Amino acid sequence: MYNENESVKLDDETVYDQELLDKLLLNNEIDEFRTEFLSMHKYEQSEYFEDSGDEIRQRIFEVLSPEEVADFFDQLEIDEEEYEDLFDTMNATYASKVLEEMSYDNAVDIMNQLSKQKLVSLLTLMNKEDAKEIKALLHYDEDTAGGIMTTEYISLKATMPVKEALIQVKDQAPDAETIYVIFAINDDKKLIGVLSLRDLITAENDAYIEDIMSERVISSNVAEDQEDVAQRMRDYDLIAMPVLDYQDHLLGIITIDDILDVMDEEASEDYSRLAGVSDVDATNDSVIKTATKRLPWLIILTFLGMITASILGSFESTLSQVALLAAFIPIISGMSGNSGTQSLAVSVRNISTGEIDEKSKFKIALREAGSGLLSGFVCALILVLIIIIIYRQPFLAIIVGLSLTIAMTVGTLVGSVIPLIMNKLKIDPAVASGPFITTINDIVSMLIYFGLATSFMTYLT
């Protein structure tokens, strides 16, 4: 939704002029800057702030009120490490007011990135009621339903008449994160129903909330993993989900904007793990920090690579008798790794979207193995024909083709089964990264290739 003071531009161009805004600020043309800046959408305001240097940011704090800064801080997306430095440049009282005006869940996300000393200081300066709400949310793990929920929602007693409920909604609306979903509770604050704003508006004035609410409520437990919450909200097309404790008391709600952030975060995490890094590299990361993120997997893969080297060394006599075998090592290991990585990506996606259940696991593994067999056979047939035409060695062609078929079949099976096993063991399946699967398949494919070549060496020589 757009506020009446926000400009709308229906194209892909930037809706603000950064040079103009910088000039207005630096030339102390405060009224003109405020007019230009506050006419922008909150997202563009946050983008401008993110793209600005320390001097401009400090001037923004000087000319905007905490309420105005809080509006675009709700949209802010900067690296976690930057928040500590950012709040060092802000007056503590001013910073506490900004956090007070933000949505509680977004304020908590920021405060989780601050040092304990700064966190305590800001909480001390806050309004007692706001500090109490934020403290309650800070207790929950960041990756749980409690960690992403907000306590700013609309709830009504189930025994309340519709006429009175409309007044209550109007009173609660300014502080609520969403007004389109309303939750019905009993005297013990236990969640017993849900209704939409439309249900309330269209109901008869003499009706009661319990008459128009739905008792079928999709909810989450406060300790539930955020990825599971996101999956359920996607499945049920919810714009808000209530969060309950173990006694069904309503603690807060999770809104769709937070779930979109969760899905983006989980996708980035899975992508980085599939690439074999601990986290997606930020563009402003130092050389040392970038290397630190990537080194753990690379060191592991180095040791796994030594196994491949040892296998090749153990078949030194085979290679010395038929040196041409070495020419096809990259093809067999590469195709095995590629097919495994493809299968891995499909499996991780199916697991993350909940499309795999216990009954379908065997069927999916069998399908992937069949796909690998068929793909391997077609690729092997092409390779056999090329070897016969170029090298005129039909038996070598058969060994290479058979090895490629088996290696791609096994590689595809490994790529699909390992994530399923990891998921069963409650380990993130994305940990079975592409480089890891590729290296495992290198080892397996070399054993297959040289095992067959050694077994049929008399025919090759």
Automatic annotation (TrEMBL):
The record, for Pfam families, names: CBS, MgtE, MgtE_N
InterPro entries per record: CBS_dom, CBS_dom_sf, Mg_transptr_MgtE_intracell_dom, MgtE_N_sf, MgtE_transporter, SLC41_membr_dom, SLC41_membr_dom_sf
Q: Where would you find the membrane-spanning parts of this chain? A: 295-315, 321-348, 369-391, 397-422
Q: Name one GO cellular component term.
A: plasma membrane
Highest taxon in the source lineage:
Bacteria
Q: Enumerate the UniProt keywords alphabetically.
A: CBS domain, Cell membrane, Magnesium, Membrane, Metal-binding, Transmembrane, Transmembrane helix, Transport
Its annotated compartments are: Cell membrane; Membrane
- Which GO-annotated molecular functions does the record name? magnesium ion transmembrane transporter activity; metal ion binding
List the membrane topology term(s).
Multi-pass membrane protein
Q: Where is the CBS domain?
A: 149-212, 213-269
Q: Which Gene3D superfamilies match?
A: CBS-domain (3.10.580.10), MgtE N-terminal domain-like (1.25.60.10), SLC41 divalent cation transporters, integral membrane domain (1.10.357.20)
Instruction: Tell me which CDD domains the record gives.
Output: CBS_pair_Mg_transporter
Is Magnesium a UniProt keyword of this protein? yes
User: What family is this protein classified in?
Assistant: Belongs to the SLC41A transporter family.
**Assembly and partners?**
Homodimer.
Q: What does this protein do?
A: Acts as a magnesium transporter.
NCBIfam families to which the protein is assigned, alphabetical: mgtE (TIGR00400)
| Descriptive protein name | Magnesium transporter MgtE
